């Protein structure tokens, strides 16, 4: 089974304890105070709280009968209570829509009218009875916690795997029931709660921060009720008592991804921080050669000098010495692969030399010939040189495909074809030029030549007689 089935009674003695921790991590303070509270209007076991943009909604469990859902104004005043027929384990929202999961039911319900719910989707293999299901911070997955493992489903209800929370259970009461059956989320973080302390976890299951909630409840109801809604982390003191909301602001880095760059082309992209106290100090490791990050500005800039897919760690520290790091992939593409568009013509019997000139990409290159070169010529598939002596007149049309050594993983999505280009060529071989003709004498030329020779002959005879 996807989640092992466990049965627990709904009445367990509350554990009163205090918790200590070493760091605040991503949180803006080591101890947070409540800035909004209002009375829980449901008398049974408190479950979670949600906010739909204009109203809060609280839920309770223990039975499907009676009033199990309450609606409040944004200030916490009671609007109405409903007998919805669900034994709630969680309520949560996306925009104005309210959703719910009930005891021992793999169905996610959506509120169709105030207090009335209809089935929306079934989470495959969800069999753990008591777990509260919510949406992740991005609103694109359902998540649930069981004993330190975060289980994930698509919005269509298909399992997406699980993530083990590293070190879960090392804090007081953390892996006890019911706190090990609840989870909340905001942004890229998951939150758990035990004995007055909130822990934040990243998507890899690492604990990235803790903060104490001043005066927060530690009862059985408290550990079932913890929720994130309207920018606050909510905990009920106990059923029928006070809901307390704590502004849960965390130090965050954006954007989550970086645009691809290109060798030899100036690059610039700005990282920003939120949730902390300015000024911020930035650092980075693993940046591609030629790039650096401005310590005060968070601007990644420079001229990349090599094609790569770099795993970059971006870190920021705020003025209160709170720190946050994130890992981002940065792709540097090679220059576009290009070849010369034409080749010179040749002549029969005359040595021919030309080349498929290649630029860009990443050497070495590999060439593939499609078609026939003129007779007497050959193509070097490594260097691109075309050499030889043409043997007959002809017009030859062919194509050459050039591929470079760029691995697909080195090219960004927009440059998936950067490592291959095909070019068509035509070479015309003409006949060998005829030798220049020897001049000939016409009839008048012969007469003139004869007269000239006669004159020369008489001259020589006169000299000998004398």
UniProtKB/TrEMBL annotation:
Highest taxon above the source species: Bacteria
SUPFAM superfamilies, per database record: Cadherin-like (SSF49313), Soluble quinoprotein glucose dehydrogenase (SSF50952)
TM spans (from-to): 436-456
Protein keywords: Membrane, Signal, Transmembrane, Transmembrane helix
Pfam families per the UniProt record, alphabetical: He_PIG (PF05345), IPTL-CTERM (PF18203)
Presence of keyword Manganese: no
InterPro entries: Cadherin-like_sf (IPR015919), Ig-like_fold (IPR013783), IPTL_CTERM (IPR026442), Quinoprot_gluc/sorb_DH_b-prop (IPR011041)
NCBIfam families recorded: IPTL_CTERM (TIGR04174)
Protein name: IPTL-CTERM sorting domain-containing protein
Phylogenetic lineage: Bacteria, Pseudomonadati, Pseudomonadota, Betaproteobacteria, Burkholderiales
């Amino acid at each position: 089974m996807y989640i092992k089935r466990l049965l627990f009674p709904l009445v367990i003695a509350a554990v009163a304890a205090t918790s200590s921790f070493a760091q605040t991590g991503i949180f803006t303070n080591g101890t947070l105070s409540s800035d909004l509270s209002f009375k829980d209007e449901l008398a049974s076991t408190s479950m979670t709280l949600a906010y739909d943009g204009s109203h809060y909604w609280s839920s309770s469990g223990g039975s499907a009968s009676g009033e199990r859902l309450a609606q409040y104004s944004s200030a916490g005043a009671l609007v109405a209570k409903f007998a919805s027929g669900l034994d709630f384990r969680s309520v949560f929202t996306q925009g104005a829509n309210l959703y719910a999961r009930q005891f021992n039911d793999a169905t996610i319900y959506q509120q169709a009218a105030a207090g009335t719910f209809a089935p929306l989707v079934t989470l495959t293999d969800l069999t753990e009875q008591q777990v509260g299901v919510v949406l992740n911070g991005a609103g694109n997955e359902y998540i649930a916690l069981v004993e330190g493992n975060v289980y994930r489903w698509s919005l269509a209800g298909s399992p997406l795997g699980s993530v083990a929370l590293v070190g879960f259970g090392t804090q007081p009461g953390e892996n006890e029931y019911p706190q090990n059956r609840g989870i909340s989320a905001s942004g890229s973080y998951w939150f758990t709660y035990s004995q007055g302390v909130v822990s934040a976890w990243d998507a890899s299951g690492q604990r990235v921060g803790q903060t104490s909630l001043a005066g927060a409840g530690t009862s059985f109801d408290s550990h079932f009720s913890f929720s994130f809604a309207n920018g606050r982390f909510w905990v009920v003191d106990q059923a029928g008592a006070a809901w307390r909301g704590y502004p849960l602001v965390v130090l965050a880095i954006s954007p989550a991804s970086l645009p691809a760059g290109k060798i030899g082309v100036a690059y610039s992209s700005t990282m920003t921080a939120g949730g902390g106290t300015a000024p911020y100090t930035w650092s980075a490791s693993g940046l591609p050669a030629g790039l650096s990050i401005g310590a005060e500005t968070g601007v990644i800039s420079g001229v990349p000098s090599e094609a790569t897919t770099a795993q970059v760690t971006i870190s920021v520290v705020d003025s209160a010495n709170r720190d946050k790091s994130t890992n981002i992939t940065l792709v540097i593409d090679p220059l576009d692969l290009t070849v010369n568009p034409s080749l010179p013509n040749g002549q029969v019997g005359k040595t021919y030399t030309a080349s498929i000139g290649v630029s860009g990409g990443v050497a070495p290159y590999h060439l593939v010939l499609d078609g026939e070169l003129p007779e007497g010529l050959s193509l070097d598939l490594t260097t691109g040189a075309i050499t030889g002596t043409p043997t007959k007149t002809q017009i030859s049309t062919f194509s050459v495909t050039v591929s470079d050594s760029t691995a697909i993983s080195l090219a960004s999505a927009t440059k998936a074809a950067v490592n291959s280009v095909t070019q068509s060529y035509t070479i015309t071989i003409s006949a060998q030029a005829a030798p220049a003709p020897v001049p000939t004498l016409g009839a008048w030329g012969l007469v003139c030549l004869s007269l000239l020779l006669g004159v020369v002959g008489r001259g020589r005879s006169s000299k000998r007689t004398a």
